[in-house]
Amino acid sequence: MEDNTERTNDRALYTVLRTHNAHVTDAMKSDEELTQQVMSALQKQHNRHLFRKIAAVFIICALISGLTFAMWEILHLPQQQKSSDLTPALCEGSDSIVRFENTPLDSMLPVISQYYGFPVSFSDVRLKSLRLHTQWNKKRPLSFFIQQLNELEEIQLILRNDTLVVTFTDTGLIP
User: How far is CA 38 from the centre of its chain?
Assistant: First the structure.
């Protein structure tokens, strides 16, 4: 009978161990599933952060290139403007026509007056910085150029005592 009780105890112990092992195995499986879920969530979070980092790098590159372009334009514009301000631009294919683009009067009129042999006199210092866009034909007389510029409302050119005099008009915008 002892053998039977021992066997029964062994079977009960075996059943308890088996049930316990099943619970441990289930717990291990649920731990593995939990670990996999945590790893999956961490991977998704890492991917989102990676995407944000890549987007930030592209935005920074775009900003840097835009700033570089702006600085290039700012630094090179004054040099180009100065060269066109001081020297008249010649029209292509013609030696007799000179085009002045955004040129101050104190740069334009000495070139023209030297060609005709007359000095220039400005009645007001502010007239020297007045900028014009115009063309001058060397084959035409000085009176034609004077008439052309006198069509402007702000200034008046007069040839007085062999001197080219520049003055403001009475209706000029600059007092």
Answer: 46
Residues 27 and 21: their CA atoms lie apart, in Å, by 10
Q: What is the dihedral of CA 36, 41, 46, 47, to 10 degrees?
A: 100
124: left (phi over 0), alpha (psi -120 to 50) or beta: beta
Model pLDDT for residues 101-110, shown as the tens digit of each residue: 888 988 888 8
- The DSSP-derived string for 110-137 is HHHHHHHT--EEESSGGGGG-EEEEEEE
Instruction: Over range 30-54, report the average pLDDT.
Output: 78
Q: How many CB atoms lie within 10 A of CB 156?
A: 18
- Burial class from Cβ neighbours inside 10 Å (0-12, 13-18, 19+) for residue 155 reads buried
Average pLDDT, whole number, for the chain?
Answer: 76
Question: Residue 22 and residue 35: Cα distance in Å, rounded?
Answer: 19
Q: In terms of pLDDT, which residue wins out, 100 or 46?
A: 100
Once rounded to an integer, what is the mean pLDDT over residues 45-67? 84
Q: Following DSSP, what letter does each residue of 49-81 receive, concatenated?
A: HHHHHHHHHHHHHHHHHHHHHHHHHHHHHHHHH
User: Rounded to two decimals, what is the model's pTM?
Assistant: 0.45
